[in-house]
Specification:
By secondary structure, the chain is mainly alpha-helical. The protein is about 75% helix and about 5% strand. The relative contact order is 0.15.
């Protein structure tokens, strides 16, 4: 059964539903909300007693406390959140990063568990719908969080992030099946659809074009939805502020609305998505057996990575790249809020610019750079790393105005869209057939483990020095380290040959 246009469309709906969460909620609004909740419950570093904000009248909302006599503005801006009954104090900017790091740790466990069920049963579609429903419902619950419930806000963020991780790995496992069943006798993605088409042998170049185009469709669809949601939320902020001048209330309403978006799209996904059935009969195993077999397969695959050296080095390189790329966004948002003192509307504009340019990147890279200019996937990946490296380097030496932050958001978005498309496309064509979910679990494990380390390290740096600019040094160093890995150790053609010989 060959891949049809409707299969690709239904697959892209998963990104349409979920991507606004990770881009708008997790990437923009959750760091702002958690930092502000922490700040409203925090104390100044000078004496660890004075509240960081003054509770003004309802129409004014929380007011930043002016610097105490004899203290500089920078010292006054250092706000600490007491946790564990006041036994530990952490920088309010670190709180959001620590929450994200912990959520990714739990997300990794969820992803590894769910992949075993997906590979050994006929439940892929149900798992996508269940994860999307849980993620949407918990995101909607942000609207009931009070100003003192920063722990509850973190809990909701953790559960929703775990749900997104599960959806993401299941969606990625579908990508390989779509590519493997693509009717390669056709030359254009628009001609897909005849189930009698024969699958013909194809080389790296054509396979890369098809993979990047299908991957680009998913990326573009998700980013387009995220862009639309981000624009709507930006336009909604003044309206919501007229209703309630408390900007944090406005943010909670926006987050909850995005949760409703994620939740309601599970209906068309349930109707349109064709379930991909494994033919190995493993659905006869009990649920516990599926999970255990999934971990066993994962262990076998990870042990076999030593015989798949190119996949190993690709994953190593992606670990380092992802560590930097995923942390750049939250670091930049917190930098804009706490160092450049940009208002909420301006922070939302950053998200819009990132999404617009990310969509452009996900279109330009597969269609122009790879399709028209004939760059192969590996060279495109290297170029995108160098492109993204400019972001933290500029953050180190010059970033000091809102205009520069807007320009940097556009630059970063182009690289983000291209990397999302190219990395997923490369990995989808170098993994062994029949092991899509388990190998994408390794990909997700690599991605998510790096997302544990990056925010945790940056959070510790901020907590120690109470200054965000130094974090850009770490992010730049990570991208520099990744370059020799993907240029010297990884070869795409050799990786495909290793996957074909994998048992």
């Amino acid at each position: 059964m060959s891949t049809s246009r409707s299969d690709i469309t239904a697959w892209a709906l998963i990104a349409l539903a979920a991507e606004p969460y990770v881009v708008s909620v997790l990437g923009t609004y959750t760091p702002i909300l958690l930092e502000q909740l922490a700040r409203e419950n925090g104390v100044l570093a000078s004496d660890r007693l004075t509240p960081c904000v003054i509770k003004g009248p309802p129409e004014d909302g929380p007011i930043p406390r002016p610097p105490p006599p004899g203290l500089s503005t920078s010292s006054a801006d250092s706000c600490l959140l007491p946790i564990l009954g006041g036994r530990v104090y952490i920088d309010t900017s670190s709180y959001a990063l620590y929450t994200f790091s912990f959520s990714v740790l739990l997300q990794t466990i969820c992803v590894l568990t769910i992949s075993g069920i997906a590979d050994n049963s006929q439940l892929k579609k149900r798992l996508i719908l269940l994860s999307g429903t849980i993620g949407g419902a918990f995101t909607m619950m942000f609207c009931v969080i009070g100003s003192h419930n920063y722990y509850a806000a973190s809990l909701l963020a953790v559960v929703a992030n775990c749900a997104f991780g599960s959806v993401n790995v299941l969606m990625n496992s579908y990508l390989t099946l779509l590519i493997n069943n693509y009717p390669f006798r056709r030359t254009a993605i628009d001609d897909v659809g005849d189930e009698n088409d024969q699958l013909l042998p194809i080389g790296n170049t054509e396979l890369g074009k098809v993979g990047s185009k299908i991957s680009g469709i998913g990326t573009t669809t998700g980013y387009s939805a995220a862009l639309a949601i981000q624009i709507i939320s930006l336009l909604s902020l003044p309206i919501l502020k007229d209703i309630n001048n408390d900007m944090i209330w406005c943010v909670k309403i926006i987050i909850s609305s995005i949760g409703f978006w994620w939740l309601i799209w599970q209906i068309p996904i349930g109707i349109c998505l064709r379930n991909i059935v494994n033919e190995n009969g493993m659905d006869r195993l009990p649920l516990k057996g599926m999970v255990l077999k999934g971990y066993k397969d994962l262990g076998h695959a990870m042990a076999s990575i030593k015989n798949l050296k190119d996949i190993y080095f690709f994953l190593l390189g992606w670990f380092v790249i992802s560590d930097s790329i995923t942390t750049i966004n939250s670091t930049a948002i917190l930098f804009a809020k706490t160092t450049l003192h940009m208002p909420m509307v301006s922070l939302a504009k950053i998200g819009v610019l990132v999404m617009m340019s990310a969509i452009s990147g996900s279109i330009i890279i597969p269609n122009v750079i790879i399709g028209w200019l004939q760059f192969d996937l590996q060279h495109a990946l290297i170029g995108l790393i160098l492109w993204c490296l400019c972001v933290p380097l500029y953050g180190i030496v010059a970033l000091s105005t809102r205009t520069e932050m807007y320009a940097l958001a556009i630059w970063y978005g182009l690289g983000l869209g291209g990397l999302s498309t190219v990395s997923r496309s490369i990995y989808s064509i170098i993994i062994p057939k029949g092991k899509e979910s388990v190998f994408f679990s390794i990909f997700s494990l690599t991605d998510k483990t790096s997302s544990i380390v990056g925010p945790l390290v940056i959070g510790l740096i901020i907590n120690l020095f109470h200054e965000l600019r130094g974090a850009f040094w770490v992010l730049a160093a990570l991208l520099i380290i990744s370059i020799p890995i993907v240029t010297q150790k990884f070869d795409l053609s050799r990786a495909r040959k290793e996957a074909e010989d994998f048992d």
